[in-house]
């Protein structure tokens, strides 16, 4: 469904992505792991054109675009097919929770207001925020804000949702509620590409894990394979540092 | 002192001055209109990636910030016709209002450029990114998400700049505009400079009231527009 | 364009700089401490003084400087004349150097501006700083002088810079008191041959240089002081 080929991206002298290929099928939940600075977030942002890649192609169903020279219209079409969940939520500060969810529907997709409100309420119910339709972001906790962020993405019914470290800005006690919501929507068959540091989510929910380091994909495969039997040295080193069991053993 | 100061002259001055508040507002209104437009252009030059444009905008803003209004006013009043003459344009019979509005538009634009730039930059880039990520076009993202939030940030500074503009506008009397300030000097001339103090007191009260009203209006506007900004105290 | 006049008058305008600077410096010397003290009355909510400071700031900020000048320039002589008459002092008020009026007007004006600047600056220094100062045994005055004021100054400095530049610009209104400063000197020179364009270009340049210089000096001083500033994440 989504195929990415040979993405390159530099910021000044700093080469962040050095030719990444990735294929995602319908219903996949792909988790990207890797140390900070490995280019995971940049990869996600390039897919949604929040950064302009220097090189590379994206194959999106029947559309094939050159990432660097994509036209405004192509960018718009791809953004309509994807949704993005941000690390720091990026809820629209001047809109209520419900308005946050319906904004893309009403303005971006020209869905009639009443219908959009219907969809929006359902999405908010799904993330457990039935009581908070009219709350502004400033009145919500971080976990609640991120759940609105997820509802905003779900409501668009996109082909794929891109999650950029959705729990790393949250206090530890709020991480659980967000992960639960993500698990639920994964169960419904939503295609997801998730950048995260939550190993447990990768192990329990993902059907494929991608390990990135130094701007390249080092290794990928089903979670039990990657976690129990990594082939590459860099993957082993990384897992040794982050896996809870090994961590305890290490002490 | 009593023989020089007579409070009844203060009361007498009000009805004579008040009709000319219109002219004061006219100058301010036109200058706000043109100044804001130019301010938007300057802010865009400052925010944009073009180095030359940014340098020009910065130089303009610095120069205007360092020039007293009265100097700018006379520079425009004497300089513009001289400049236009080189192009074969005769500006001798143009209304004074023209030069006054140009002066204060130029000045207001410099202030607005900074107000707009700082308001724009105060809005997190993520707001725009989130908007396009849910399928809004760039223009829709600016108009519906970024602009309404920037407006709230800009309002108090806009209000302050407007107050400054109205106060500085009082200097237009020096080239003969009959606004509320100009009328005050006419009244004083008419009384052969006697009881100037009383007239000026009346004048200052009018300006003071205008300022307080504008301050309150902007305070209210800020409240109305700051949707989603209310801070809930949770302890 | 008369270039010889342009060059000559530039120096005429320049000769007005000392007057503008003296007024600026005297006004700041009065306004800075007075503004700080009055800002404290508003923050500590001292009953009568606080109310006075509030109305005072509102009036000064709500009226044009030129009107303030005219009020002082027409009221102080009246006041002095009546005093002179009462105590039979043989002195003519019109012999007083107009620079004294300038000192009065601009000090009154700048003090109001400083109250506002210090009020917002003081409110940014957290209460914890004061509490910490008390906790190590500093007295009220010591805490203020050694802990609070240095921090307040850093926060207030950019606004004090703006106020100073505005003050220098405002001295151009000294013409209304026949004060021999930059603008009036150049204007008088222009009266002879109607070289107004040249004269105002000179005046413009002198203010531009003067104000840019002041801004530059403040920026350098700000850099030196900024070690107090804690970077907020």
UniProtKB/TrEMBL annotation, chain A:
<dbReference type="Pfam" id="PF00005">
    <property type="entry name" value="ABC_tran"/>
</dbReference>
<feature type="domain" description="ABC transporter">
    <location>
        <begin position="2"/>
        <end position="239"/>
    </location>
</feature>
<keyword id="KW-0547">Nucleotide-binding</keyword>
<dbReference type="InterPro" id="IPR050086">
    <property type="entry name" value="MetN_ABC_transporter-like"/>
</dbReference>
<keyword id="KW-0472">Membrane</keyword>
<keyword id="KW-1003">Cell membrane</keyword>
<dbReference type="InterPro" id="IPR003439">
    <property type="entry name" value="ABC_transporter-like_ATP-bd"/>
</dbReference>
<dbReference type="InterPro" id="IPR017871">
    <property type="entry name" value="ABC_transporter-like_CS"/>
</dbReference>
<dbReference type="InterPro" id="IPR027417">
    <property type="entry name" value="P-loop_NTPase"/>
</dbReference>
<dbReference type="GO" id="GO:0005524">
    <property type="term" value="F:ATP binding"/>
</dbReference>
<keyword id="KW-0067">ATP-binding</keyword>
<keyword id="KW-0813">Transport</keyword>
<dbReference type="InterPro" id="IPR030679">
    <property type="entry name" value="ABC_ATPase_HisP-typ"/>
</dbReference>
<protein>
    <submittedName>
        <fullName>Amino acid ABC transporter ATP-binding protein</fullName>
    </submittedName>
</protein>
<dbReference type="InterPro" id="IPR003593">
    <property type="entry name" value="AAA+_ATPase"/>
</dbReference>
UniProtKB/TrEMBL annotation, chain B:
<dbReference type="InterPro" id="IPR010065">
    <property type="entry name" value="AA_ABC_transptr_permease_3TM"/>
</dbReference>
<dbReference type="InterPro" id="IPR043429">
    <property type="entry name" value="ArtM/GltK/GlnP/TcyL/YhdX-like"/>
</dbReference>
<feature type="transmembrane region" description="Helical">
    <location>
        <begin position="57"/>
        <end position="77"/>
    </location>
</feature>
<feature type="transmembrane region" description="Helical">
    <location>
        <begin position="97"/>
        <end position="116"/>
    </location>
</feature>
<feature type="transmembrane region" description="Helical">
    <location>
        <begin position="200"/>
        <end position="219"/>
    </location>
</feature>
<keyword id="KW-0812">Transmembrane</keyword>
<dbReference type="InterPro" id="IPR035906">
    <property type="entry name" value="MetI-like_sf"/>
</dbReference>
<keyword id="KW-0472">Membrane</keyword>
<keyword id="KW-1133">Transmembrane helix</keyword>
<dbReference type="Pfam" id="PF00528">
    <property type="entry name" value="BPD_transp_1"/>
</dbReference>
<dbReference type="InterPro" id="IPR000515">
    <property type="entry name" value="MetI-like"/>
</dbReference>
<protein>
    <submittedName>
        <fullName>Amino acid ABC transporter permease</fullName>
    </submittedName>
</protein>
<feature type="transmembrane region" description="Helical">
    <location>
        <begin position="20"/>
        <end position="45"/>
    </location>
</feature>
<comment type="similarity">
    <text>Belongs to the binding-protein-dependent transport system permease family.</text>
</comment>
<feature type="domain" description="ABC transmembrane type-1">
    <location>
        <begin position="21"/>
        <end position="218"/>
    </location>
</feature>
UniProtKB/TrEMBL annotation, chain C:
<protein>
    <submittedName>
        <fullName>Amino acid ABC transporter permease</fullName>
    </submittedName>
</protein>
<dbReference type="InterPro" id="IPR000515">
    <property type="entry name" value="MetI-like"/>
</dbReference>
<keyword id="KW-1003">Cell membrane</keyword>
<dbReference type="InterPro" id="IPR043429">
    <property type="entry name" value="ArtM/GltK/GlnP/TcyL/YhdX-like"/>
</dbReference>
<feature type="transmembrane region" description="Helical">
    <location>
        <begin position="20"/>
        <end position="43"/>
    </location>
</feature>
<feature type="transmembrane region" description="Helical">
    <location>
        <begin position="147"/>
        <end position="168"/>
    </location>
</feature>
<comment type="similarity">
    <text>Belongs to the binding-protein-dependent transport system permease family.</text>
</comment>
<feature type="domain" description="ABC transmembrane type-1">
    <location>
        <begin position="17"/>
        <end position="215"/>
    </location>
</feature>
<dbReference type="InterPro" id="IPR010065">
    <property type="entry name" value="AA_ABC_transptr_permease_3TM"/>
</dbReference>
<keyword id="KW-0029">Amino-acid transport</keyword>
<keyword id="KW-1133">Transmembrane helix</keyword>
<dbReference type="InterPro" id="IPR035906">
    <property type="entry name" value="MetI-like_sf"/>
</dbReference>
<feature type="transmembrane region" description="Helical">
    <location>
        <begin position="55"/>
        <end position="79"/>
    </location>
</feature>
<keyword id="KW-0812">Transmembrane</keyword>
<dbReference type="Pfam" id="PF00528">
    <property type="entry name" value="BPD_transp_1"/>
</dbReference>
